[in-house]
Amino acid sequence: MVERIKSKSYDSAKNKLPKTIAGSSQSARRESARGKSTQGRTVWLLLFGVLGAILVVVISVLMTPLDDLEDPSLLVAPTPEPSVVEVTPTSIPIPPSDLQFPQTAPALDIEQTQAELKALATTMQSHYPRDPAAYHFSAQIYAELKQSAAAEDLWRQCISLNPKHVGPYVGLAEVLTSQGRAEEALRCLETAQEQFEATPELLLALGKAYEDLGKLDEALQAFAECTQQFPDLGTAWLALGRVQNQLEDFPAAEASIGVALEIDGPSEPALFALITSLVRQKRSADAEVVQGQMTALRATPADLDSSFQQQYDESLRRIAASMYIAAASLEEEHGEMDLAAEFAQKSIALDPLYLQGYMSLSAVYRKLGRMPDVIAIQQRLVELQPNNLLNYLNLASVSVQAGSSQMAELALKEAILRDPNGTVAQSALAQLYLAVGRAADAELLAEQVAQRDPSIDSLELLANVYTALGKSAQAQLVSEKAERLRLDATFRPR
């Protein structure tokens, strides 16, 4: 039953949104035009072009929530290696890194960890007394430790310093809501709405505040706007479906919840909301099926052997690791790179499986030019997630930065092993070969990419390869096809 609900299209749910919202999404979902590449670049310009292409993927990894990094949609089962040439070692030798990474997490002393977090909050306020980010950071610590009064005071100090983002307002609103002060929370969020562009966290918090106050029409508008601006956010679709249920628009609720299930998979709140909409539509048989799935979900918790204390310990460990990463980011912003590295290393030491710590340390070492250490970090991420395609693409990116085309080639070949029918790694490897004067090796890859994804970029890559090989007639034909695509994109009605 859930599978059938999940198969409902995005358009079906969109058509049931308020008219003032549904019509505003078209421009938000358009892709921006691809940039035009140029033939006849030098080897070094091509190498930086390869780096730029791979960095797009690096950015996507750094912006991906860590809980999603092992999502099955990102992982591809290994398949036989495609026919590509063997490595020719022509790279600059990279000195070894002396970084050592912990393999297991240490025992956690709860009182000591809490005290260290509070001391860290005090330190940040002392170091940066005029920086609202320091107070936002400190407030987050106290909020995570369930000390609402201290968190509220710190967020109010933060807001008095005119923060540049909406986070402090949302944090303060959440604290106020937890204390039953819904009207104050709503005023706080409406103030933020006047000052900042809409973000997922602001729209979700605003919708929840309206919902808590029984202002369901306003809640509907906030959640609908969130789904239109951020259509891949499952929590927004679920919130929208929940309000649609309360407004007794049960078919619309079913469609919205179906999108949430498609994005995030089954959860008790989503299945419960779906049951409500089905029952109210007098579809008892369908509701019973979903009820059975919810019962099965409850019977298989994530860790049957975990006690409440163990779960609390692990939750505190992850909170502390996250706050050390936030501290690293704050120090990095102020140019204190050594302190930033120290905090990132503390995060890794506390929770060696929390990947964001490695990413934070990698970002700091990149800025410090410590490329052997950056490569060591990326190799560690490959160890932790050997089936994650993006880790290999990141490793290729930093290898190019470090001047090792050989290591980049090896990493891209590993990426191709995990996605043999894709285009991203294949395109990057073709560009790398072209950049280092191995156009013959790039030809097959570029042809495969252009066949699978005949885009402007892939066709221009193939044209560049043909030009390098002296196949001017073929290069001209492919370039003309790319130009037709560009003209079509330019004059396509919007």
Q: Which spans of ≥5 residues are poorly predicted at pLDDT below 50?
A: 3-9, 19-46, 53-90
- Give the averaged pLDDT, no decimals: 84
> How much β-strand is present in the residues?
under 5%
Relative helix content: 55-70%
Based on DSSP secondary structure assignment, what is the total number of beta strands?
Answer: 0
Q: Profile the largest sheet.
A: none
Spatial extent as radius of gyration: 26 Å
**What structural class do you assign from the helix and strand content?**
mainly alpha
Tally of separate helices: 25
| Quaternary organization | single chain
Question: Can you write the helix and strand succession as a string?
Answer: HHHHHHHHHHHHHHHHHHHHHHHHH
Distance between the termini: 37 Å
Task: Write a concise keyword list for the protein shown above.
about 500 residues; 25 helices; globular; disordered N terminus
Task: Describe the protein.
The chain has 494 residues and is an all-alpha fold. It contains 25 helices and no strands. The protein is globular, with a radius of gyration of 26 Å. The two termini are 37 Å apart. Residues 3-9, 19-46 and 53-90 have low confidence and may be disordered.
